[in-house]
Amino acid sequence: MNRIGNVMGRRLGRRIGQLYLGLVLYGVSMAMMIESDLGLNPWDVFHEGLTERVGLSFGVVTMIVGAAVLLLWLPLRQRPGLGTVSNVVVIGLAVDAALAWLSTPPTLAARIALLVGGVVLNGLATGMYIGARMGPGPRDGLMTGWVARHPRTSVRLVRTVIELTVLGSGWLLGGSVGLGTLFYALSIGPLVQVFLPICTVPPDRATSSDAGYDSAPITGRDGAPAPVSAPAAGS
Q1: C-alpha to C-alpha distances, 169 to 19, 31, 47, 186, nearest whole angstrom
Q2: How far is 126 from 145, CA to CA, in rounded Å?
Q3: CA-to-CA distance for 7 and 18, rounded, in angstroms?
Q4: Which residues are 226's β-sheet partners?
Q5: What pTM was estimated for this model as a whole?
Q6: CA–CA separation, 202 vs 209, rounded Å?
């Protein structure tokens, strides 16, 4: 029993650490794409459009939108977790901090490198915090919830459709769109599908679940999330 408890404790510690590292890196990746000045990612196009209209900071708008998107989880029966709540707060704080530190490179080559690095880091960060199995972020919950209810669809397809839909909405609000925006929209789905299986922390086989913390889908075939057993009541 002590051995099982130690294993579960180590797994939980890894998951919490991976969750928050992933969220911070996600915020940094957002700032990298913004400072590349080659086009925001689709959600940030939407955030920027709202920022111009409501006069709040970019990070604050990110947090508000994240909370609002949770309402779209209802028909998908997606459940929030620690990672969901943390996503709304940590990413907004991280992107504001990173924007205060980063600046736009002076050359086009450096800006392209910053953009590509930001997109790849974004895919890795997404895989890290979803793979921690502490609850997906509000926006990623749309992806994992849909795939869990429609297992024949892939992460790549669902994520790409979501990104293109958000991109259109952000453009109508006046958000900045560039070649980097299209690059992100078409590449983030495949990147997440690659990184998610690699970063997913496996459950303890001896206990079938990690003390009720399996609030997020884990990866199934071809990188698609598969639903896990619900935790026992009161856990």
Answers
A1: 29, 21, 10, 17
A2: 15
A3: 16
A4: 218
A5: 0.76
A6: 9
